[in-house]
Amino acid sequence: MQPPVSLDARTxxxxxxxxxxxxxxxxxxxTILNTALPAMARDLAENPLRMQGVVIAYMxxxxxxxxxxxxxxxxxxxxxxxVTAIVLFSVGSLLCALSTSFNQLVASRVLQALGGAxxxxxxxxxxLRAFPRSDFVRIMAFIALPGLVGPLLGPTLGGWLVExxxxxxxxxxxxxxxxxxxxxxxxxxxxxKGPERVRFDTLGFLLFGAAMVLVTIALEGLxxxxxxxxRVMLLLFGGAACMAAYWLRAGRIDAPLFSxxxxxxxxxxxxxxxxxxxxxxxxxxxxxxxxxxxxxLGYSPAQAGMSMIPLxxxxxxxxxxxxxxxxxxxxxxxxxxxxxxxxxxxASLATIDxxxxxxxxxxxxxxxxMVNSMQFTAMNxxxxxxxxxxxxxxxxxxxxxxxxxxxxxGVATAGALLGGFTxxxxxxSEVLRAFQLxxxxxxxxxxxxxxxxxxxxxRDPGHDDDVRxxxxxxx
Length: 475
What we know:
The protein has helices at residues 9-32, 37-43, 52-76, 78-98, 102-130, 133-164, 169-172, 174-188, 202-222, 229-250, 266-296, 301-307, 309-319, 322-329, 331-347, 358-384, 389-421, 429-448, 450-453. It has 475 residues and is mainly α.
């Protein structure tokens, strides 16, 4: 590892704030949009139940770029890439606000995601290289705070902006922050490059990316795009072939994008696949819940946004309890039980209707937030805890990709289920029933991940190395 670079006192104070604000922009944008989807659908003459492409385009683009972010920063310099990321994010936000069609909005979201995908990884890399290791945990804890505030503020702010202004403002509010961020980055962001040129696995990147895109489009094809089953099967087959080609190639080259040797660590393999499948349920909730409240139950955008607050509050409340509970129960028992509980709570959302008391709904969502947060923390930690120091960086990068990919697939799967259960010209109780059946299916899928966590050893991984500290990957 490179020694820390020399920073003047003012830069050392402001740099963590700069990265934290970039994280806040990213997390806020990930949650502020969901409450606005019905209003956006009305303006763009789209069905609100088929707006998931706007969410998926962002998540999938972020997942695609994460593996390349470190190499790009090392190759072209951290300051240039960080400023470019803010510009792309801001220009994409402006184009989103100016969009007059669904396809234009999706394309603008892709551009916005190009910036969002680079901001946080490059910022983290600069902090890692610019500060001594003794300060790294403290600074990263500070940078992670906006990740808790963004999901708390996002749905409520989105709902209020839609109700009292227009949905365009959920994107326009990024512009002044982007201008300030560019000025601050040009002044205070160190311009760091890698110590030596490292060859990037371009072919592996293309194969891995193609697999993610093809599988996601296939799921989207079942929902929003109404593709024929033949086309969906061809896309799934193509995605599987690309992924198989990637892993076969990765096993015989020296520096693959992600080495298959990572999966020789049992806890990492279980954690990666557990993350992929367990997050299908949790990733679908921020998309499904605002739609349920507004489209099926008649909530206003502001009411729907405020109803999402218990999810974030529950997640924040359980953060400090994660380590003691993991220490007491162990990863295997906790993840099996917590996964089953989370699936049951998601499936039980099928009982919500127009007669459900508001207080009961809020308590229900608060419990889901708590259980979901415990699930994410335990899964992230068990995935990385058994890796050697040499494999930790690559393993963390793959985990970050899987987190984004699984949330994207969760939204795509929920959209496909919702589209499949919704009859033509559905109204009132028919729309509500489609949501109820979707929640039952999504909860059932989340519960199936418990079978993966059964494969963990009874003895916790990393127990002897005292590395069982809970880990968060941008949550």
